[in-house]
Amino acid sequence: MDQLLKILVDTPPELRLQILQAAAPVLQEQEKTKQEEAKVKQLDREIEKRRIEAQIEAGKQLRICGDHVTMSSEHLASMLDGRNYYSTFVAINLREFNIQHLLKNNNNVNDDMVKIFENYFDRSKVEDDATESVIQNAIDYLLKKLFVTFDDFTSLKYLNTSRFNYLNSNTYNKLDMKNPDVPNGKAPDCTFIYKNINIRIKDGDNCLQDFVVCLGELKRPEECINEDKYVGQLCYYLDSVLQVQNRTKVYGFITNLREIRFYYALKDNTKNSPVMTFYRSETLQIFNKPSTSTPPAKKKKKLNQQSKQSDLNKNTIETFIKFLMMDFSFYEYKRLNIKPNDYLYQDEYRIKQRLGSGATSMAYLLVNKDYHESDNHYIFHVIKISRTHDNEKHFKNEIEIYKQLKTIDSNNFNKFFSNIIASSPESNIFFFSRRC
Fold first, then answer.
1. Closest C-alpha among 66, 18, 35, 19 to residue 246
2. Are 431 and 423 contacting, i.e. CB atoms less than 8 angstroms apart?
3. How far apart are CA 393 and CA 379, in angstroms?
4. CB–CB of 361/431 below 8 Å?
5. Distances from the Cα of 135 to the Cαs of 84, 98, 237, 361, in angstroms?
6. Average pLDDT, stretch 69-84?
7. Which pLDDT does position 254 carry in this prediction?
8. CA angle 161, 362, 354 (to 5 degrees)
9. pLDDT tens, position by position, 283-323
10. How large is the C-alpha radius of gyration of the chain?
11. Strands 259-268 and 275-280, how do they pair?
């Protein structure tokens, strides 16, 4: 149009009408093109608007432990299997780390710890046809014996959670047309919590994920632990822990009792959209010579106990034990403001379920250690734990207010308020009863 105006300025008046008539079809076509382009842009804007609205609506359907989660990788990840999760989220965000360097400051491992492994199994225990349950039973025995025997050296407790879909148990897979309202929880094979957490897995399905410190996955000896689907499975579990607990780092491992590999997930919250990066160690051999097949029967008979024990790779066993015996700060558990040596009344009560979650604390229902309710069924015991160290001052204020109210009118106090039985010296834990 601008070019046409320039032409008309330099054109004699008698010719301008002819030029305009000749240019009219072109101008009309140009205007039509602009209108079509505007429609396309408007359609694109409408599509993007609907996409955002759909994200927001889907995000409203997701709540993990009471904390709002917008529609993003968490929702998509719950719909993917291990292989697809790996290709979508892990492959481009996978880095390497040196596990020995990470654990180098742990000097608590001794020969007695290693002997627990040496005395239990040899290469024949991990034959090609060994089932995952055989591997699970081996880990159950080894870790329970290790933690019981050397309780003073560790901050952890081991749980076999291979049959309990507790992780992300509050999320739902809306793509499952048959069971869209059935919880889509996951069941890591090995779950580690602080040793002062007294919880029965069956009772604590809705709150066990609050206490996860680190995880482990087990595979059959014939399966390669480096397959994408297995790495993706573990990384999804680690991702889920970070999302549920709103923490930034969590460790895990995969083993088939021939090899073991360590991982950790790291979430960067400094950006508008949190970025997840995954790290893996080198693959460590549990036996000095990698076993690719079961030795012939005749060779098995010639193996004596001494040769079986020496077949274990002591460096790998020590690395695994070090990982389980690190100072509690190493694991960077930050869901609740607790330490492994805090007194949580674990000698008298077990945590049964989460009652509530607030900005400063979380509350859990307790039952007697033998799983029976209190003799007085109208009195309930509750433990309330602060979320962070900064929340302790709020706890102190709350205690003082309770004391003042009880002093003013003790008779009516118990009708409306919980009775604080005890609190920790650091004011990070309340233990109280409530009459109902």
1. 66
2. yes
3. 28
4. no
5. 26, 26, 20, 38
6. 63
7. 98
8. 45
9. 999 998 645 544 554 444 444 444 454 588 999 999 999 99
10. 31
11. antiparallel
User: SS in 3 state form for the chain?
Assistant: CHHHHHHHHCCCHHHHHHHHHHHHHHHHHHHHHHHHHHHHHHHHHHHHHHHHHHHHHHHHHCEECCEECCCCHHHHHHCCCHHHHHHHHHHHHEEECCHHHHCCCCCCCCHHHHHHHHHHCCHHHHCCCCCHHHHHHHHHHHHHHHHHHCHHHCCEEEEECCCCCCECCCCECCCCCCCCCCECCECCCEEEEECCCCECCCCCCCCHHHHCCEEEEECCCCCCCCCHHHHHHHHHHHHHHHHHHCCCEEEEEEECCCEEEEEEEEEECCCCCCEEEEEECCCEECECCCCCCCCCHHHHHHCCHHHHHHCECHHHHHHHHHHHCCCHHHHCCCCCCCCCCCCCCCCCEEEEEEEEECCCEEEEEEEECCCCCCCCCCEEEEEEEECCHHHHHHHHHHHHHHHHHHHHCHHHHHHHCCEEEEECCCCCEEEEEEEC
d(CA 336, CA 207): 12
Give the integer Cα–Cα distance in Å for 213 and 344.
Answer: 17
Neighbours of 226 (CB within 10 A): 12
Closest Cα to residue 295, out of 59, 119, 126?
A: 126
Whether residue 74 contacts residue 243, with contact meaning beta carbons closer than 8 Å, is answered with yes
Calculate the alpha carbon distances from 267 to 134, 214, 232 in Å. Answer: 34, 15, 16
- Measured from the Cβ of residue 138, the count of other Cβ atoms closer than 10 Å reads 18
The tokens describing 172, both together, are 């739902």
What is the reported pLDDT for 48?
Answer: 56
For the chain, the distance separating the N- and C-terminal CA atoms, rounded to the nearest angstrom, is 82
pLDDT, tens digit, 9 for 90 and up, residues 45-76: 665 566 555 544 544 444 444 444 444 455 55
Q: Which pairing describes strands 67-68 and 94-96: parallel, antiparallel, or unpaired?
A: unpaired
426 strand-pairing partners = none
Contacts of 381 (CB under 8 A, 6+ apart): 349, 365, 366, 367, 374, 421, 431, 432, 433
User: Angle between the 111-120 and 132-149 helix axes, to the nearest 10 degrees?
Assistant: 150
